[in-house]
Amino acid sequence: MRHLSTVAWLLFLVSVPLWLRSPYFLHVLIITGIFTIAAMSLNLLLGYTGQLSLGHVAFFGIGAYTSALMSLGFDVSVTESWKLVVAPKPVAISLAVAIVVSAFFGWLIGRLSFKVRGAYFVIVSVSFAEVVRLVALNWVALTQGPMALNNIPPVTLWLPVLGVYRFLAKTSNYYLMLAVAVISYVVIARLVRSRAGRAMIALRENEALATSVGVDVTRYLVLATVVSAAIAGTAGALYAHYVRIVDPDIFLFIYTVTMVIMVVTGGKGTLAGPIVGGLIFGIVPEVLRVVAGPEVQWIIYGALMILIVYFLPKGIVPALGNAWQGWRDARRASIDALASAPAARDGGA
Amino acid sequence: MILGGTYALLGIGLTLIFGIMRVVNFTHGELYAFGAYMMFMWVMRLHVNFFVALPLAVGLGVALGALIEIVLLRRLQGADIDTTMLVMIGAWIAMQNAEQLAWSGVAQSIKMPFPSQPLVLGPVSIGWERLFVFVVALALIGLTYYLIDRTRLGKAMRATFQDRETSMLMGIDVKRINTATFALGSGLAAAAGALLGPVFVVQPDMGDLASLKAFAIVILGGLGNITGATIGGFILAFMEEAGAGYISSGFRDGMGFLLIIVILIFKPTGLFARKERIG
To answer: What distance in Å separates the CA atoms of residue B232 and residue B272, rounded to the nearest whole number?
Structure first.
């Protein structure tokens, strides 16, 4: 039953480009998918370890910039005489480097910032993203600053049957995004259900208790950050090679907020939550765009966020789960009542 | 360095709110922007005298702060810190875009009634408007200290800060203290905005950097520590000038974040520590 519905969902997602004829909506879906992947990675930190990371967009942007720079080639003057020159690399290698570099930053930030918790951690993560943004904006020699990196090549991979394939068309990018999303989902699901995942949940629920039974809290937090950063970096790299231009605005705080809203709306700490939230907040703005300007749209975003925290504090997925459970219990209770009613009457007579 | 006073105002507001209410106030920067926009509205649109507009802007900031507390935060009493943070982020986004909707995204400037000739004292020359900003900021800091150290309300606030439950038992109306704290903190942020807005320009996203700088100041001084926030404000202002002068003016605004990161690595309790943080 479980597997059946999973397969049905996958088939549905795979079939989308076959019946969705509008390239614009396909584009919206691809961008939504990329941000949903990022939201899934954020969920690992926010939902499973309970750490509100508000600098998540930094990993996304680092992935985007790294992959773009590797595929375009760059040179950096390390000292006056010595210059590091990197020739353009194939995109497959750039992607791999982007994942490694994001993971490295995840490790670094994890090591540094998990000395503190709660409000302090939140502020550190915000600061981190802001520093990275300023670096991207001001290190013009490397990143072109506000002039942005242009002409980023599309993803080119060797595929079985197809040979070397350039992901230029929207449909092919959709499948690429879907493949990455599925892989990320499986990685996160396996991690969460493993020993490490149980350790993370334990420390989310009660850090002191988790420590006292021997869970190496910092180690698991860093592990979660590394995996999360690597996935966010992958999403960023995909984004770079899909839209094919990257500028420092990619680090804007508003993208982190979008990811947080996706996770919180869908249900943090559930595997399906970020996907549901991602779809809603990927598609709703496009629908709203017809009726409202960008400012009004954001005001609605903000208001929605507040309302969701008030009325669905656990998010949509757990709320639906509870409703479903409640309905089943009610049904079972009524069946039991029906079944036991004649017996009671017999007993009475 | 002159900015130090206004930075301190921002920091004190934020640290008060965190210390007493345990709320990480992401709308702080928006109240700063609100103060600046109120000045813009009164002075440039309605042609009110600059010195009349200033207290008006601060007063409206206090009112808006009280409103936010009553509407959004009161019902979240006892909720965990992440929940309130999410609500405040939502409010922040809504407020910032409301500003953009109301006053457009274009940067605006406010005229100040000061002579353009700077005041020259020996080797130092200083703009009149900056001097004014500095003096008013110092006066407001002094006033805040007086309010907290010498008045009944301040006493109740300090008691709530030390121990919430006990102060409730002692008959302090903690709800009212919360509203007062948030209003006071918001007023200080609005004052900072009303003072700095005319010196620089007024634009809707001015609040973002203000928020982040306020966080930097507060981390520097330790969350909930007023004196720490005051000194932190001056340190940050100094570091920004030094950073802009010796590294690159592009990194001026980055100094605060570097500062946060460095401080949290080496001295996670802040410079003026009271033991509290976990880690």
So the answer is: 10
